[in-house]
Specification:
Layout: E1 4-15, E2 18-29, E3 33-37, H1 44-52, E4 59-65, E5 71-73, E6 81-85, H2 96-108, H3 111-116, H4 118-138, H5 154-166, E7 172-176, H6 184-206, E8 215-218, H7 222-228, E9 231-236, E10 253-259, H8 271-286, H9 294-304
Parallel strand pairs: 3-8, 3-9, 6-7, 7-8
Antiparallel strand pairs: 1-2, 1-4, 4-5, 9-10
Helix pairs in contact: 2-4, 2-5, 4-5, 5-6, 7-8
The chain binds adenosine-5'-triphosphate and magnesium ion.
The site of adenosine-5'-triphosphate has 12 residues, from strand 2 and helix 1.
Length: about 300
């Protein structure tokens, strides 16, 4: 596949007798903004943890693909995969700017270097803080650089967390229900932030550069999934596992994978546009009565394997 950035192959996961994920296969193309939806408890966070590398799968593998055709199996976290969770992961005793600069500091310096190499450390620190300020400006938080997390609203904290992840320039940004704790208006504001990442991808493509942002966002809001992404994936335990010779439910697998319409941040929201796809997703992913044929779905998915508009 051209410009594949992340590859998941036959991934299965279980917690003792609780089988959670079954034979998940997924190719993520550079520049895609993918939304992952699925019934509560089906294993979305488990899949994300396997991609981050904190909890490698019981079977199968997650691989990062290099532009030169190299492939590397993931079994530990590294800066190539950034993650933002629903609960703000900020240090309360650091300002917004320091929080965003923190990852660069840890990545590029050591404690002895910071304590004893002041001549070098000083200018590097200034550079990190400058980069953090620029990133926060991009998140429209230029006026909150010196504020501490308890002084920020939930939406602002989450924007700092996204800035914290983006400043590390991850190959793929993972978001696990990042807006789940926010009110509706703030949530919409943050969704528009994601749309600006898509716009940055478009500009890069126009200039013949690789798109800088590849995103996988878990959300339980189907409208949000269709709005922010260019490809929607459905993970579900509701599929015909008897068909593949299983005697008991083996866990969730990908049962839905389709392109989604693309919006610009200032586009008028017209949820009528989403209606058909929303119905389709509710049926294919969330309906326990509808157990999709695994074989048939996989044949169909081969035709959609690129997904999105990349
Ligand atoms: N550390 C763990 N030990 C045992 N079971 C676990 C562990 N983590 C998750 N599980 C189980 O795995 C299943 C999938 O959990 P997971 O959190 O991945 O689901 P999810 O799709 O993210 O759910 P939600 O939509 O509610 O966030 C659940 O049955 C959960 O109880
Ligand atoms: Mg979860």
């Amino acid at each position: 596949m051209d410009d594949c950035i992340l590859k998941i192959e036959n991934l299965s996961h279980w917690f003792s007798s609780n089988r959670v994920l079954h034979n998940v296969n997924l190719d993520v193309v550079r520049g895609q903004i993918i939304a992952l939806v699925g019934p509560s408890g089906c294993g979305k966070s488990t899949l994300l943890r396997a991609i981050v590398g904190t909890h490698p799968p019981c079977a199968g593998k997650v691989m990062m693909c290099g532009g030169d055709g190299s492939v590397r199996v993931i079994d530990t976290p590294d800066r190539e995969r950034g993650i933002v969770y629903q609960r703000y992961s900020l240090f309360p005793h650091l300002t917004a700017q320091e929080n965003v600069a923190y990852g660069l500091m840890i990545d590029q310096t050591s404690i002895p270097n910071r304590l004893f190499g002041r001549k070098k450390w000083g200018p590097l620190r200034a550079q990190h803080m400058e980069e953090a300020a620029a990133m926060l400006e991009r998140m429209q938080l230029g006026s909150a650089l010196k504020k501490y997390p308890p002084e920020l609203s939930g939406g602002m904290c989450q924007r700092v967390a996204i800035a914290q992840a983006l400043i590390m320039r991850p190959s793929i940004l993972l978001l696990d229900e990042p807006f789940g704790a926010l009110d509706e208006a703030t949530r919409e504001e943050l969704q528009r932030v994601l749309l600006t990442l898509y716009q940055e991808n478009l500009v890069a493509r126009k200039n013949d550069e690789p798109p800088p942002h590849t995103v996988l966002i878990v959300t339980h809001e189907i409208n949000e999934a269709i709005y922010v992404s260019d490809r929607v994936i459905g993970l579900s335990q509701y599929w015909d596992w008897k068909e593949v010779g299983e005697k008991t439910a083996p866990g969730a697998t990908i049962v839905y994978d389709r392109p989604a319409p693309v919006f610009a941040p200032n586009d008028e929201r017209d949820f009528m546009v989403f209606r058909e796809q929303k119905e389709e997703i509710l049926h294919a992913v969330f309906d326990p009565e509808y157990c999709q044929s695994y074989t048939e779905y996989n044949q169909m998915a081969a035709g959609f394997s690129k997904g999105g508009n990349a």
